[in-house]
Amino acid sequence: MLSDSPELSVVVTQYPSELLRILVIVPFPMAKDQLSNREAQSNKVALGENIELHYQPVKVAPRTFVSQEDYLLADLSILETGLNAQKEGYDAICVDTVSDSGIAALRSVLDIPVVGPGRVMFLTALMLGEKFSIITMWKEWFGLYHKTLTELNLHNKCSSIRSIDVVPDNRALLSGKEDAIVPLLIETAKSCINEDGADVICLGSTTMHQSHQALEKELNVPVINPGPLSYKIVETLLSLNLSHSRKTYPKPKVP
Q1: Is 145 helix (H, G, I), strand (E, B) or coil?
Q2: Closest Cα partner for 116 from 195, 222, 33, 229?
Q3: Residues contacting residue 162 through CB under 8 Å, at least 6 positions apart
Q4: Sequence-distant (≥ 6) Cβ neighbours of residue 17 within 8 angstroms
Q5: Number of neighbouring beta carbons within 10 Å of residue 118
Q6: Is the distance from CB of 46 to CB of 79 less than 8 angstroms?
Q7: Of residues 226, 44, 211, 250, the one with CA closest to residue 123
Q8: Please, what is the Cα angle at 196 between 194 and 200, to 5 degrees?
Q9: Strand partners, 132
Q10: pLDDT tens digits, residue range 9-40?
Q11: Which of 109, 116, 58 is nearest to 86 (CA)?
Q12: Cα–Cα distance measured from residue 168 to residue 186, given in angstroms and rounded to the nearest whole number
């Protein structure tokens, strides 16, 4: 029997001290007061003191993302907004939509990390449980989720997609409507857990971030808030000096 306890080894990790600027591309044109609803997501996650988030709306966009033409226009508008981010001194990009619009195109022309909340959320859900469900505002958005789940081959890991069937407000978000909408989201999430077998709940849009705290309090499974998660993932990639693979995202032969 040994009487002497081994000494504990303490490792202190130092994050880079230089300022890191992250461009958050908002997928709709909006005024400054409307943009503040999006910026409020930054209060839901603890980031290093050297991390700065800069929110930038696109110039033009489809009214909402419900058709293949909408998807294409969203890709183009987000590509345009982020095209010069690296030249402008940004260290990374987050795209503020679960559709992950424009991300593949931006990765093909930029070396800095480009992250969207959709894939990040679904893959993180599988680190927390066996199956996840997506709760969303509107059935018209189901096509976006099916597109990403198909690309990731994750349909068998998605227990269900349920909607409260309320037309979303991409600018005001849930402001002033929380008392009416949040109980519907809670009820829907409980159905996903109790009837569909979900181990994790995924919010279907960054526009739903204002409901996260209430859902987290009421539910007995993890609830993922996609926007703040994407900020933390980008911070981690930067701290590890990681970015996307050129084998997957080759640069254009002709600029």
Answers
A1: helix
A2: 229
A3: 133, 134, 135, 136, 188, 189, 191, 192, 196
A4: 50
A5: 29
A6: no
A7: 226
A8: 80
A9: 158, 200
A10: 555 555 556 899 999 999 999 988 889 989 99
A11: 109
A12: 17
Residues for the chain: how many in total?
Answer: 255
The reported pTM is: 0.90
Q: Which tokens go with 213?
A: 């705290």
SS3 24: strand
Tokens of 50: 């050297």
Question: Helix (H, G, I), strand (E, B), or coil: what is residue 203?
Answer: strand
Using one digit for the tens of pLDDT, what is the confidence trace for 180-227? 889 999 999 999 999 999 999 999 999 888 899 999 999 999 999 999
CA 42, 82, 224, 196 torsion: positive or negative?
A: positive
Coil, helix or strand at residue 8: coil
3-class state of residue 99 by DSSP: coil
